[in-house]
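Sample pair:
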Amino acid sequence: MNAKALAVAAAMGAAPAAVNAAELELYGTIGAAGEFLDNDTRQSGEVSNNHSVIGIKGSRELLPGVRGVFLADWFVGIDRGADPDSGGLFGEGRDGWVGLEGDAWGTVALGFQGRPWKTATHHLDPFEGTIADYSAIMGTISQVNDPGQIYFDGGIGNSIIWFGPNINGLSWHAQYGVDRDDPNDWGIQVNYTQGPLYLVASFDRFRAQRRDEVPDDVDAIKVAGSYNFGQGTTIIAMVENLRNEDIHTRDAAVYLGATHRINTTTFQAAVAWADDVDEVSSSGATYLALGVSHNPRQDVELYALVSYIDNDSNGAYQFISAPHTSRNRNTEIAAAGDDSWAVGLGIKYHFSANLLP
């Protein structure tokens, strides 16, 4: 994994780690970018929040090898501040749970957490938490008849969460949402790490609300991996299938990425292809992104990127405006077939501090 991915994973607390008898940590990321978008029919510029978040996590030893643990964090809107439409400086929760961690079983918790589809690969995306985030294509179906209905790059609330222990490089994340209004929201990922190799497979299901208000189960299957060749070079690949028997099936989306680090500068590239949705011809898209990231310090990142989405005539894919990517309000395309360009110049500061002496 490149240094940026490692720094983000450490700062954001992507998975619980072993702790001492007592630990209380403040952590987070503050980031913003100047962004320019061209959506065929309009051009716009905006200073946008990029996945800013602040959180606290802690643990307390209860028995030898058993700890009580918790995590709670919130999105931070540093671009619009007190704007009532943005939810103010502190916005909606990102992750939050409380539970028990054991050397033998891992962590079992109750609360809200990014779904297994998300935690399986979000750290593999060189452009994670920016306007060029891979969720523009991966885990998403956008088409002229029902844009934005299928979207897996989120979390599961009211859930039972299990982060499995690391057993010779093998671990897992399973999650089930206990919600009477959405009773079919669950997922599981199994991953394997051995030296420079990372492999993961995930299966997720959620109940989408159709425009005719008839809910339907949607399944996502994803297989992905990365390999660090040494000398600063890492390659990334993933393929997924999104399936719904009644309204949407996209047989495949493929994502390929690469990073190359020279001293404190990392060069990034990614390309993705979305297949047509069944029964909607020419509804796919192609995504491209190029970027460069510079770390004058390990916890400070300066970056520049350019990204392009080329929609087929019935495709309606667009850059994602969300707290975990970019809060740019001008990402929506005007009509199916419109293409999108995005350019971003940004800065991110990752921080963590132990609050106990």
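The domain at 3-354 is CATH 2.40.160.10 (Porin).
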